[in-house]
Each structure stands twice: as structure tokens, then as C-alpha cells.
From TrEMBL:
GO terms for molecular function: catalytic activity. It comes from Kutzneria albida DSM 43870. PANTHER family: ABM DOMAIN-CONTAINING PROTEIN, QUINOL MONOOXYGENASE YGIN-RELATED. The lineage of its organism: Bacteria, Bacillati, Actinomycetota, Actinomycetes, Pseudonocardiales. Residues 2-90 form the ABM domain. This is ABM domain-containing protein.
Length: 107
């Protein structure tokens, strides 16, 4: 699995509308056959920062994602809202997706 985490710090005036700006990109990516998950969260510590956690089934699926029209369109529209260059972690993980956490269970 390709596991990716990206931190997007956006300009304050675009913070409330960020998820609307990336809605088509998010929908199209989730529809890709090789996409395992594509999830946005908002930082609780850094104002105006969104964190994207994404997973792709294979390196090929990741390449197809980056070469897709919706990816290219997103790369063209996102810069207007960014406050800084996004930070990324991109690794190959020897798993197929999420698993249960062994150290913690509901009481």
C-alpha cells in the first residue's frame, strides 16, 4: 500500500471554504479503482491547516492518481488558497489498509 499524509496550510480567508474547493478532487479520487481511502481532517493545533490521509493499493495506483485529470485540475486550483507549500510523507507500507489497534479497546 502507498500511504500518504499531506498537511495543507491555507490562507485564513480560504479556510472555511477549503473542503468545498477540494470537493470534486476528493470525490473523483475516492472513485479511483486503486484508492483505499482519502480522508480530510482539520488540525486542532495549527489554525487553517487541513491534513489529508490517503492510501492507494499499489505504486501503479498512485501513479495513475497523479496522472489523472482531476489531480492536474486540483494542482491548478489549490495554489490560490495556500498559505505555504504543503508538507508530505509518502511511504510504501507492507499492509493492505487499516487494522485494529491492539493496545486499546472500548471499555
Amino acid at each position: 500500500m502507498i500511504f500518504i499524509v499531506v498537511k495543507f496550510t491555507v490562507r485564513p480567508e480560504h479556510s472555511e471554504g477549503w473542503l468545498d474547493l477540494v470537493a470534486d478532487f476528493t470525490r473523483a479520487t475516492r472513485e479511483e479503482p486503486g484508492n483505499l481511502f482519502f480522508e480530510w481532517s482539520k488540525s486542532v493545533e495549527v489554525p487553517n491547516q487541513y491534513v489529508l490521509v490517503e492510501g492507494f493499493a499499489s505504486e501503479e495506483a498512485g501513479v495513475e492518481h497523479v496522472n489523472s485529470e482531476h489531480f492536474k485540475q486540483a494542482m491548478a486550483t489549490m495554489p490560490q488558497a495556500l498559505a505555504s507549500t504543503p508538507e508530505i510523507i509518502n511511504v510504501q507500507a507492507p499492509v493492505d489498509g487499516w487494522g485494529p489497534m491492539g493496545e486499546l479497546k472500548p471499555a
